[in-house]
Structure formats: C-alpha cells, structure tokens
Amino acid sequence: MITPEFPKDEQERLIELQELEVLDTAPEERFDRYTRLARRLFDVPIALVSLVDADRQWFKSKQGLEVCETGRDISFCGHAIHEEDVMVVENAAVDERFHDNPLVTEDPSIRFYAGYPLEGPGGHRIGTLCVIDRKARTLCEDDLETLRDIGEMVVNEFASLQMAITDELTGLSNRRGFETLSGQALAMCRRAGEPASLVMIDMDGFKQINDRFGHDEGDQALKAFAGLLLETFRDSDVVARIGGDEFCVLLTGAGSKTTEIVTRRLRQAVEAHNAQSAKDYTLDCSIGIAEHDVYHHQGIAETMREADEQMYANKRSKPKRSRTAVH
User: Fold this and answer.
1) Which CATH number is correct for 175-323, 3.40.50.300, 3.30.2270.10, 3.40.190.10, 3.30.70.270?
2) Which of 136, 252, 278, 298 could form a disulfide bond with 91, CB atoms 3.0-4.6 angstroms apart?
3) What is the pTM of this model?
C-alpha cells in the first residue's frame, strides 16, 4: 500500500476546507441528490462526496456506506486530490497503491474506484465525488464526462454554500457566517480554557459618504475598511460584516487588555490609510470591547450586546465634528 502524499498547497487547502464550515455537519439534500444520481447512473453500490481533512476523509454525503469517515492514510481520495481530472482505479486488487489496503482486503472490499477532484471556491482541491464498486470495471469517455458533470454540480453547491456565509462586497464573514464560526471558536476556547474577546466596530460618517459621493463610493469605503480589519487582526480571529456599516471581530486566546492593544493598532492603521488617501473623506470608527466568559456565557449574543453598548457609548462621547468623515 502507498500512503497518499500531502499536496503542495496542503495548508491553504485545509484552511479553505475549514472555512466552508461543512465538516461534521448533518446530511443535506443538496449533496445527497448527487450521490444518489451517481450511484444510479453508474450502477454502483457506493457513491460519496468525500472531504479530505488533515488526518481523515469525512463523507458529507454517502450512499451505500455506513461509516462517516476513514483514515486519510488509507483513503483513495487522498490520492485523487492530486489529480486535475478523474482518477480511475479499475482493479484495486492488482494496483500497487491499494492491493493490501484494508479498504480493499476488508469491508467494503473496494475493487473499482473513480473519483472526480472537487475544488473549493478558492481553487484548492478539498475532496472528491467518487463512485465505488466491489468488482473490477472500466469507464468509457462518456462515463468520465458524466462523472465530471455531476462533480461540477457538487462544486457549485460548495460555492453557493460559501456565498451563504460570506459578505459578497467585502469578502468577510456575514452575520450567519460569524455566528457559525464564533460558535466553533468559543467551543475550542472552552475546551482549552482560553479567554476570548469581542470587538464591535461601527464606521463613523458612513451615511455622509453615501449621501455626498454615492453608494459606489460608499462600497469602496466599506471594502477599504474591511481590508484594514484583515491587516490588523490575526488569521485566527473571526472578522465579519454584520450590517451596513457594522463590523465585529472575535479574538480567541485574548483578554480585554490584549484586545485593547490590537484595537489601538487598528486606529493607527486607519490613520495611516487616511494620511495617504486621495479621497475627499476620511475613515473613522467607534469601537466597543467585551470579554467573553467561556464558562459563564452560553453563546455570543450577550457578549455582542455588551460590546455594542460600549461602542455606542464611545460614539456618543465623541465631539460632533469628529462624527462626520466628509471634508
């Protein structure tokens, strides 16, 4: 048996897979319809949408198989994600990569395998749509084209899933995405006994930018501010646009003091942006911080309210002249 190697883009691939937020989620009809279709068209006992995680392959959709995952080291799909097109194994029993693989010598007794590599929205191969038979067989070109077509339908489902949790304008998480990601991040903090803090941010003077320069320019201001957030906060922080000009960031492993230091860096980044900008307006924001008690708070909603109240208190305390960004 030959253990599948890691792709050169392994770290980026895993990040994209995590950002899709589908691992260990419940079955969905949007994916099951394609595995049912593949199973019927190819007349095979098993069809899967398999996602290749760091040390396992996990099945988002499965027909004809009871287990939800297997080790990556024995996976056929771990090999298939290296391919640009369908990987076909006509008879695994005589293939040097798989002949003594436990998936071949034991249940489910794989002989035939065909896997189409699935690309995530970012272009990294995150898994496969695969069909499996317990007897050796071949595929003709029409069969390969059919598998490609179904595979691309699955790719489109992942793209639409990503759109559902991503703000289209800024590329940040939207409110739904933030709720999903923050729940997972806080669960990890709870297990590790680490602190977490939430930052609520409201752009000052955004209405004036829209009113004076138009919504297209307002969109440019939002994108510029989102870029500053991404530059300031860590890759591990959950950064989201939750409303028109409202943003929030969840920092894991950071108490309120550390978070205050980071928000000062954000203000410095905003000032540096304004200093070199040729726009007829400047960016500004009001910020509120609340530390999340991972043992006391049940979810993120209460912490969001606390940070929101502080943010609006800070906004009201600003001199009126500083609340407008247009000059």
Assistant:
1) 3.30.70.270
2) 136
3) 0.66
